[in-house]
Amino acid sequence: xxxxxxxxxxxxxxxxxxxxxPSVNVVMEPELNLMAPEGVSIHSSRLVISGPSSxxxxxxxxxxxxxAASRLRLIDPTVMLFGCTSCSFIxxxxxxxxxxxxxxxxPVITTSxxxxxxxxxxxxxxxxVATPYVNFVNEEEKNWLEAExxxxxxxxxxxxxxxxxxxxxxxxxxxxxxxxxxxxxxxSDPDCVFISCTNFATAPIIxxxxxxxxxxxxxxxxxxxxxxxxxxxxxxxxxxxxxLLRTS
Amino acid sequence: xxxxxxxxxxxxxxxxxxxxxPSVNVVMEPELNLMAPEGVSIHSSRLVISGPSSxxxxxxxxxxxxxAASRLRLIDPTVMLFGCTSCSFIxxxxxxxxxxxxxxxxPVITTSxxxxxxxxxxxxxxxxVATPYVNFVNEEEKNWLEAExxxxxxxxxxxxxxxxxxxxxxxxxxxxxxxxxxxxxxxSDPDCVFISCTNFATAPIIxxxxxxxxxxxxxxxxxxxxxxxxxxxxxxxxxxxxxLLRTS
Amino acid sequence: xxxxxxxxxxxxxxxxxxxxxPSVNVVMEPELNLMAPEGVSIHSSRLVISGPSSxxxxxxxxxxxxxAASRLRLIDPTVMLFGCTSCSFIxxxxxxxxxxxxxxxxPVITTSxxxxxxxxxxxxxxxxVATPYVNFVNEEEKNWLEAExxxxxxxxxxxxxxxxxxxxxxxxxxxxxxxxxxxxxxxSDPDCVFISCTNFATAPIIxxxxxxxxxxxxxxxxxxxxxxxxxxxxxxxxxxxxxLLRTS
Amino acid sequence: xxxxxxxxxxxxxxxxxxxxxPSVNVVMEPELNLMAPEGVSIHSSRLVISGPSSxxxxxxxxxxxxxAASRLRLIDPTVMLFGCTSCSFIxxxxxxxxxxxxxxxxPVITTSxxxxxxxxxxxxxxxxVATPYVNFVNEEEKNWLEAExxxxxxxxxxxxxxxxxxxxxxxxxxxxxxxxxxxxxxxSDPDCVFISCTNFATAPIIxxxxxxxxxxxxxxxxxxxxxxxxxxxxxxxxxxxxxLLRTS
Amino acid sequence: xxxxxxxxxxxxxxxxxxxxxPSVNVVMEPELNLMAPEGVSIHSSRLVISGPSSxxxxxxxxxxxxxAASRLRLIDPTVMLFGCTSCSFIxxxxxxxxxxxxxxxxPVITTSxxxxxxxxxxxxxxxxVATPYVNFVNEEEKNWLEAExxxxxxxxxxxxxxxxxxxxxxxxxxxxxxxxxxxxxxxSDPDCVFISCTNFATAPIIxxxxxxxxxxxxxxxxxxxxxxxxxxxxxxxxxxxxxLLRTS
Amino acid sequence: xxxxxxxxxxxxxxxxxxxxxPSVNVVMEPELNLMAPEGVSIHSSRLVISGPSSxxxxxxxxxxxxxAASRLRLIDPTVMLFGCTSCSFIxxxxxxxxxxxxxxxxPVITTSxxxxxxxxxxxxxxxxVATPYVNFVNEEEKNWLEAExxxxxxxxxxxxxxxxxxxxxxxxxxxxxxxxxxxxxxxSDPDCVFISCTNFATAPIIxxxxxxxxxxxxxxxxxxxxxxxxxxxxxxxxxxxxxLLRTS
Amino acid sequence: xxxxxxxxxxxxxxxxxxxxxPSVNVVMEPELNLMAPEGVSIHSSRLVISGPSSxxxxxxxxxxxxxAASRLRLIDPTVMLFGCTSCSFIxxxxxxxxxxxxxxxxPVITTSxxxxxxxxxxxxxxxxVATPYVNFVNEEEKNWLEAExxxxxxxxxxxxxxxxxxxxxxxxxxxxxxxxxxxxxxxSDPDCVFISCTNFATAPIIxxxxxxxxxxxxxxxxxxxxxxxxxxxxxxxxxxxxxLLRTS
Amino acid sequence: xxxxxxxxxxxxxxxxxxxxxPSVNVVMEPELNLMAPEGVSIHSSRLVISGPSSxxxxxxxxxxxxxAASRLRLIDPTVMLFGCTSCSFIxxxxxxxxxxxxxxxxPVITTSxxxxxxxxxxxxxxxxVATPYVNFVNEEEKNWLEAExxxxxxxxxxxxxxxxxxxxxxxxxxxxxxxxxxxxxxxSDPDCVFISCTNFATAPIIxxxxxxxxxxxxxxxxxxxxxxxxxxxxxxxxxxxxxLLRTS
Lengths: 248, 248, 248, 248, 248, 248, 248, 248
Hints:
- The structure is a homooctamer.
- Chain A is of the alpha/beta class.
- Chain A has helices at 2-7, 28-35, 55-63, 65-70, 85-90, 93-104, 111-121, 135-147, 164-170, 175-185, 206-213, 220-231, 243-247, and strands at 15-22, 40-47, 79-82, 108-110, 126-131, 151-157, 192-195, 217-219.
- In chain A, helix 11 links the parallel strand 7 and strand 8 (217-219).
- Chain A is globular, with a radius of gyration of 17 Å.
- The relative contact order of chain A is 0.16.
C-alpha cells in the first residue's frame, strides 16, 4: 500500500492539479485557489512568454510545455492542466498534451480543450465570446470555435496585447469589466456566453452574469477547473461560479 | 500614472508574492493561499529537486534561483520569496537573494531569513525545533541557529528524506503530526517552538499548539508569509495562524 | 473599447439607475438602495413639489421632467426612472417618458408604467389597492387601473395630502401601517394587493403580507425597481421583497 | 407634538441627510448609503457640472448651491451636505454654506470643511494626499491644506479630468486603485493619508489601508459622513470604514 | 382612518392575541412567545384555578371566562384564545366562547376547538394521546375525541393533578418527558400523536418527535397558536415546531 | 427536596416574574419577553384601567393590586412586578407593594421603584425625561423625581391620554418616536435620559440612543426588568438594551 | 409512570446507546459522538483484544460480550451495539447478539449486521470494499459478503494488523486515507463503496466521497449508528455523513 | 519516530483520555464529549456498581480500578481519569491512582483530586456544595473538604441513592435542577459553588450560574476535564463551561 501514501497529501487529498501557467499571468492561480473545493490543491510551473502577442510568442510558449511539466512530476499530480486559452487553440493542442503526458504519465487538460468539452456538456450551439485579446487572436478564436462546430453569435475583445505593457493590462482589469463585456456580447441572443483568457478575472461575476442573462456563462478558468476535476474522477458540485460547476 | 495601473491587479491589489518553490513541494502553495489576506496573491515558479536529500541536491536547487525568478518578472511582483528552509540555511543565503534580485529588481525574502527575523521579532533566546529532515540536515540546522545566536533547547526530526520516496513522504504527513512533534520538543522548556520545512503541513495546528503550550510557535510557511508581507510594507494582523501573524 | 470603460463603475457595474424623485419624498431613495442587488447604484435628481396635492401640483412636477433628467446625463445611466406613482397616472405618462428620453437617450420607466407591467406579468385580473392619498387622487387611480383593464376589488386610502404638512405625513408612516391597510383591502378577495405611492414605506413588510394573505403584493417602489432592472436587461432574482422580485 | 411627527421617518428616524452632489458623480450616493448606520437616510439633489475641470466649471457649480438645496427643503433634513471636495476648497466655502443654510435653515457641512474637521479631530500635523485630479486642482488642494496649517508630506494625483470623458473616468476607477495610490503617498511617512474626491471609490479599502500602513486614512466621503453625523448630534461608532468613523 | 391607527401596534402589527390562561400555568405564555412570528404579540389574563383537578375546579374556571376577557378588551385584540385544554373539553366549549365574544366582539378560539380543527386539517383518523392528567380527565379526553369522530389508538397520562402540589408538577416537567411519553403512545401506530395540556412543555421537541416517528405531532400550545393565527387571517408558515405550523 | 422541584420550571428555571400590567398595555409583555434572558419567564395578570388618564383611574388601578397578584400565586413567582410607571409614582408605592407581598409572599418591584433604583445605580444627578403622558401626569412625574433628589433637566411629553382612544395611542407609537423624543430632551445636557411609560415602545432603540447621545438611557420596561432580575438574585449582563442591563 | 422517569435522561432523552468496543479502538467513540443527533448519548464498555489479528484474538473478544454488556445494564440502554466489524463476521453473529440480549433485555445490533441491513436498504447488488485489515480478514470479509448475496466488485486493504503495533496503526490513519482507498476500489464500478472497520476514521470524508463518486458510501461506524437509531425507533435524517443517514 | 505515530490519532491528536466510569453513569461521557476541545478524544471503561449507595458499593467499585484500566492500555492514553467523585473521596484516592498507573504507565487523575486542585487554583477558601447524594455521602464529603482545609459554607443534597431506582434518578435530572440547587447553597455567601457528582448534569448551566451569582462554579465533570487537560500538558482556554476552563 506504499502507493496509497503518495495519493494522499494534507491539502490535496482529493486531487493535486499540476498547472502550467504563462509567466505574465496574475489571475489563474488565485482564481483556481478560490474556486477549488476542499482537498484539491493547485501547484504551478511557469511558461515564459514575453513581448507582444504574436504567432511567435505562442510558439515559444508551447515549446516549453514538456520541460515545465517535468518540474511538476514529483508532486504526483492527479491531473495536469495547460492553462493558456489562446496558445492552446493557436498551437497544436494535441501535441501540447502529448509532451506533458510524456513527462508526467497522468491525464492532461488544456484550457481550449476544457472549453470545448464544457460547451458540449451544456449542449451549446451558438456562443457569444468576450475576450481581452488583440484582433488576430480574436480571429483565430472565431475560426477555432467554428471549426469545432459552434456558431459564433458575436465576438468582441478589449484589444489588449499590442505590446508587453498592454498585455500585462489584461491581468489588471477588474472582474466587473468582464461582466460588462459579457453583457454586451449577450445581446446577440446566444445559448451561452464564453469569456476567454485565463488572465482575465471573472470568477466573482459568473453567478451574477448568469442570473442577469438567464443563460450559462463559461470562462476559461472555470472551465479549466471543471474539466480537471472531472478528469480526476470528481463529480462534486461547486457553488458560486456558474451552472457548469454547480450542476455537473 | 501608467505605473499605478500595473501595481493594481484584481486579486493582488495589496501585494503579489513571487514564490520559488522546490518541485517536490505540495504544501507551501496551499498554505500560503490559506493564510494570505484578501488582496494578496501568490504566484509560483518551481526549482527542480530530485533524489535523496544531500549537499548536492541543495546546490543544484540554489543554482536555479535566477532562472526560476526570471519566470516571475512579468507579474511585477511586490516581493520575491525563496521558499525552501533547508536550502537557504545550507547554501549561501545572501547569494540566493542576490540572484533573484538581479532578475526581478524587487526585495527578496528567503525562508531561513524569514525565520531568523521572526525569532528576533519575538525576542526568542532559546528555541526548540521540530523537523521532518534526515540527520545531516538537522545538524546543519542546529549549527545555523546557534551561529545566529540562539540556544537550541531541543531538536528532533522525523528522519524522512533518505530516498526520493521517503522525501515525498514529508509532504504527505497530516498537520497533526507536526503538532505531536512540536509538543514533544516543547518539553525542553524553550521560549518558542520552531517547526521547520515548507513542505511540512502546519497551518491549521499553529493556534492550537500555541494555546496548549503557552509559548509562540513559528513555522516555515507562516514565517515566510509574515516576512513577505512586512517587506511589502503591510502591517496588518492575521487571525488563525499563531501570534507572529496576529500581533505584529 | 473606450465605451466599455464608461459602462463600468465600481458600485454600478451591473446598472446605474437615474432616479427622478419628488422633492418631498423621504422613502424612495432608501427603499431602492435597500432592495437593489450588488452592482446596481441609484442616483437621484429632484422634482419640486409643494403645497397640497392638486392637479396643479402634478402639472408643475411633470413639467420639470426634462430638466431634472438632464442633471443625470453625465452618470451614463443604464435606465431612467420617473418615481412618482400618482403624477405618472394623472399626467400624460407617455410625454413624461419622451421628455426624459430626449435628454438622456436611454430607456425610461415610470412608476405607473412599472405597476401596470408588474400586474400583467403576474396575470392579475382583480386588484385591491391601498393608498395614502386624498380622495381625488384615489378616484384617478381607480379610473386609471380600470382603463388599463383591471377590476379594482377595493381601494382605500389614508386620506393624507390635504396640505403640505399633511402630505409630508405620508413619508412619516411606519411600514407596518401599510401592512394594516393592505390586509384590510385584501378582504375583498382580489388576485393581488397593490400598495401605491413611492413615499409610503413598504419594503420590509411585503414578504410578511404575502405570507399572511397567500397572494402577491405589489408596491410602487418594488415594482419600479423590478421594471428598471428588467429594462436594464437584468433577470436576476431578489429575495425578501415579495414574489415579483423573487420569481421573475 | 406635531413637530415630532416630522422628525421621524421610517428610514431616517435618526437623521435625514440632504446631499448636494455634482451631476457627474456615481460614487458618493452608493458610498454614503453603504456606510450610513441604520436610521440615517440620504436624499440627494444634483449640481450640474460639465466639460473639463476648470475654474469656471467650479464657479458654475457653486452658483447652483442655493437652488439645489431648495429642492431638499421638504424632506426636513437634519443636516445638509455639499458633497464636492475640490469645489469647496476652490470656491468660497463659507458662502456656499450660507446659501444652503438660507434655503433650508439647518446646519450645513461641506466636504472640504469636513476634511479639515476630521484632520484636527485626529491631531494630524503632516498629511499625505492621494487624488484623481488634474494638476491645477492638486496645486489648489496643497495650498488649501497648508493654509489650514497642515504639512503636506506628499501629494500625487491620477491626473484625470482634462476633458469630460476623462473626468468621468474618475468615477469608474475600482476602489483598489485608491488603495495603491494611498500606499504610494504614504511612503512620505505622514501622520495620516487623505484620499480626496467624492467621486473616487474608497469605502471598502479604508480598513485594509489603515491596517497595512498603521496610520489613519481619511477619505472625502467618509469624512463627509462623519461630520454630518456629528453635526446631527450622533456620536455613534461605525465599523468597517477606518478609525475616524470607528472611534469618534 | 382613525381605526387603522388602532390596528397597528409596534409589537403586534400583524395580530394581537388576547390569552386567557389558568393561574397555575407556567408554560403557555413562554411557549406562545417562543413560537409566535414577528409582529404577533401575546397579552394574557388569568383564570383562577386552585386545589386538585376536579369537575368543580373546571366549573369555577369556565365561569370566569367573561370577566377575564373583559380585562383584555382595551388591547383591541385581533383574536381571543381560551388556553386550557381540559377545561374546554370538559366544560361547554360553545358557552365559553360565547362569554368571551360578548365581552370583546372578536373571534374566539379555545384550545380544545383548536385541536379538533388541527386534527381535521391534517386528515387524522386515528390519534394517540399523551397527557400529564389524572385518570378522570384522561377518560373525559378519550370520550371527547371519540365523540368528535376520531379513533383513540392509545392514551397514556403522567397521572399528575391529585392535589395542588401535584398539579403544579405538570408545569415543572422538562419538555423531553413529553417526548418520551409521545414516543411511547406512538407504538400504537396512529396517524398522529397529540400531546395534551397547555401547561405541559413541548415546543422544542415537536420537530424531533416528528422526525423520529415520521407522523405529525400536535400539542395544545402549538395547535392553539396555529388556530389563532388562521383565525386572524394569517396564512404564514412557521419553522421549528412541527408540520402543522410549517405547512399550513 | 420537594420544594426544589417547584423552583424549577422548563422555561423559568432561573426566575419566574409575576407581572401586573394595566389592561390597556400592549407593549410591556412583548418587551419583557424580548429582553429577558434564557431561563426567565414572564407571567401576567391584568389591572383594569379605563377612560381618560385621571387621578381616579389611577386609584382604581392600584386598588386591584392585591387581587390581581393573587392570580399569580400558583406560579410560585420568584419576584412580583407592578408594571405601571405613573400609577406607582402617583399612588402610594409602598402600599401597592405591601398588598402584593401579602398575597404572594415574595419580593415586589414597582416600575417607579425600579427607575429610582436604576438612576441611583448609575449615579445620575440630572435627568431629562421623555413621556407620552398628558400634562397633569408629567407634572406629577417631575415632582416625584425631584422629591427623590434628582434634578429634572427637561421633561417633554406627547400629551396623549385625554380620552380612551387617545390613551390607546400611546401603545401604538413606533419605538423610533421615543428615540426622537429622547434626543430632543437630551439637548438639556443631562446625565441620563429617562423614557417613561411601560406602554411606550423603546427596547430596540435604547442602544442606538445611547450610542448617539453618549449617556445612559433608562426606560420603564428596561429598568423594571433590571430591578426584577437583581431582586431575584441574578447578576447577569444582557446585551442590546442599554448600559443598565449590560454592565450591572 | 415511574418507568418513564428512567426513559428520560438529560443527554440521552431520545435514546441511550450501549456500546461494546474493542479495547484498542480509538475511533468509534469519537465518531459516534460526532454523528449522533441531539438527545442520543453513547455509553461504552470495552472488550479486551491483544496481540496480532488472528482467529484466536476474535474468539477471545466474542467470549466477553456478555460480561461487557452487563456493565451497561444500569444505564437502561435503548439499544445495544456490538462495535467490531470483523469479529462479528468471523465469529457467530447470532450468538454474540444472544449473549448481549440475555444480559440487557433490549434489542442488539452488531456492526456486521448493521452493514448488511444498510446494503439491503440501499438496494446494493455489487459492492467495492476498502479495509485496513490483513489478508486473512479480507478473505473472510469477501466470503461473508458473498454469502449474504452481494457481488464484491473489488476489495483492497491496507494490510495492517500483523502485530500489535501494526494493529494500533489502523486507528492512527487520517480519514483522508480512507477517502483515497475508497476512491481506488470504486474504479471497479460498483453500486456502493463500503469502508470496513470501526477503528478506521471515515466520518468527515463520507459526504465528499459520495459527491465525487456519485454512489452511496457506507462505513462501519456510520452503518452502526444508522441501524442503532432505526432499532431505537428513530427515523430522523442526519446531515453530513452520507446518504444512508440523510435519506432513510 | 515509530513512537510518534502512536501519539497521533485522527480524533485524539492532542490527547486521548482514558475514562473509568461507574456503570450506572449516563452523564459523564456526554458531558466530557461536549466540553472537550477539538483533538481530544474520550474512551471509557466501566466500573460495576449496583444496589443502593453504601460503604460496600464504593469498596467494590474501587477494587475494580486496575482491571478496568487495563482495558484502556491499548489506546495509548495520554492521561487516565477515575470518574467517580464520591468513591474517590470515600475510598483511598492514592491507592486508586496507584492501581491505574500500574496498569497503564501514564499520569492518573481522580475526580476528587481534580476538584481539590481546581479549588486551590481558584484560591477558594469557603465553598458551598450542592449534591444529589444521600446523607451519609454528604457527611463524608463535608469531612473530606474540611480535611483538605476548606470551609464548607453550606452543603445541601437531593438525597437520592437509597435504592437502585433512586440512584439511577441522579442521572435523570435536568441540568437546570443543578442550577436551582447551586443557587440555593450560594445564599451562604461562599467564594465558590461546587456541584458534586459525575452523574449529575451541569455543563450547560455553569456559565449562567456564574453570571447570575458572580462567583466561580466548579462541577465534577468540568473539574475532571480541566485537570485531565492540564495533566496532559494542554493550557488552552475553553469557552462555555465556567471560568475554570476559560481562564486557566
